[in-house]
Amino acid sequence: xxxxxxxxxxxxxxxxxxxxxxxxxxxxxxxxxxxxxxxxxxxxxxxxxxxxxxxxxxxxxxxxxxxxxxxxxxxxxxxxxxxxxxxxxxxxxxxxxxxxxxxxxxxxxxxxxxxxxxxxxxxxxxxxxxxxxxxxxxxxxxxxxxxxxxxxxxxxxxxxxxxxxxxxxxxxxxxxxxxxxxxxxxxxxxxxxxxxxxxxxxxxxxxxxxxxxxxxxxxxxxxxxxxxxxxxxxxxxxxxxxxxxxxxxxxxxxxxxxxxxxxxxxxxxxx
Amino acid sequence: xxxxxxxxxxxxxxxxxxxxxxxxxxxxxxxxxxxxxxxxxxxxxxxxxxxxxxxxxxxxxxxxxxxxxxxxxxxxxxxxxxxxxxxxxxxxxxxxxxxxxxxxxxxxxxxxxxxxxxxxxxxxxxxxxxxxxxxxxxxxxxxxxxxxxxxxxxxxxxxxxxxxxxxxxxxxxxxxxxxxxxxxxxxxxxxxxxxxxxxxxxxxxxxxxxxxxxxxxxxxxxxxxxxxxxxxxxxxxxxxxxxxxxxxxxxxxxxxxxxxxxxxxxxxxxxxxxxx
Lengths: 271, 276
Hints:
The complex is a heterodimer.
Chain A: E1 10-21, E2 24-35, E3 39-44, H1 50-57, E4 65-70, E5 73-74, H2 80-87, E6 90-93, H3 105-116, H4 121-134, H5 151-163, E7 169-173, H6 181-197, E8 201-205, H7 209-215, E9 218-222, E10 235-239, H8 241-246, H9 250-257, H10 263-270
Parallel strand pairs in A: 3-8, 3-9, 6-7, 7-8
Antiparallel strand pairs in A: 1-2, 1-4, 4-5, 9-10
Helix pairs in contact in A: 3-4, 3-5, 4-5
Chain B: H1 11-38, H2 49-56, H3 61-85, H4 92-130, H5 133-139, H6 144-182, H7 187-197, H8 200-226, H9 231-268
């Protein structure tokens, strides 16, 4: 069971954020505050905008409408150089780890440190080895290329790379997707360990209820816009994991229990 | 609520939309090119220049040599009959080599490199896009356009002219091989006519063109890769479009550069001949 952090102030604030790609609207009028030190779980069906949410928070995307505020700064008002500086306060674990194929594990983990240009190569070597040890990888992986690694190892190298810059906020995009149950729990434990070892805010996008129950102290559930009625909010639930388990909304219950119900017929009608 | 439907367009509206899209694409490409050029001021843009140059330059040598050689040989085969029937076989050196150096060498080498180098760059960057490696670069404090686009641009601009020189050399050799050894054209006259008509201006125009072609290939192919659509189909489409657009750009640039350089020559040397 996860621990509730002390509530301070919102480090991240989304204010009436709408995101549209061409004619496809993915997020609509989202208001969401993330408290400093909190571990927020974001759940929802495929296509409801969870990954888009993470990319808006780190400034990889700019909202069509609304504002994304990070530590008091409106990301849209920042120059590219200022945005890059703010991004370095984040660590992002991508869904497929997004390791650089042409670089070794060492060069992948060292990449951000070298881009910053503030540390000597000797210091970088120490940091790389320490981060890899932290995620349970031996020094023998240092010279391997990503193609030589298993899925779980790639995720752990991705986590080491994200942590190498000592971020204040960690973003996890479906960190356990594609992993076996044991490796899934290894990643869950690493997320808990990361939070224990440093004062960090975490946002975890996941489908795994086990991850939510183990790691998150607050859960937000999004619903796909195409399936909402007019005027309904896109955020169906916002509360603790315990409240999520007690939630009576049938759409929330269907998701957390993982039941198809009449969804198959709906999909057949759409096709 | 989530999507906006559009009614079917008439031909006129479709045409207007296509033109508007093309103008937007051109503007987007120009902005992208400006970002690539801005990256030349950053030292980090040069970290990967050497391995990329090896891939663009050294690995292209065999195919460029083959392309050049066969350009010269085919020209010789096609031109010999006509020139020999007029008793002008010894003039073949002039025709083949000026064609190779001024036009066929630069254009066909650029087209071949657009296929080999350009579509590979587009596919590589598109794969990086769909696997979120480009986003990861941005998250780790690097500018993806400077880190990925600028070294590729520099490698193409610096190396495609050198590869064109190689293609030209092989074209000259190939043409000479066929004319002298197969058709038994008098070697002395073959080379004397070449020397008399292929001058520094021809060599220079043959190098200005590949610089422009290299820049166009790099910008177009990197742009297509960066803004690829999702999935394996998106990667394939990016690579194909990169080659097609690069090919068209090479042809269009060749036309306008030929006009510009001819006008420049006439302006600089209004009464001059090709004997230097």
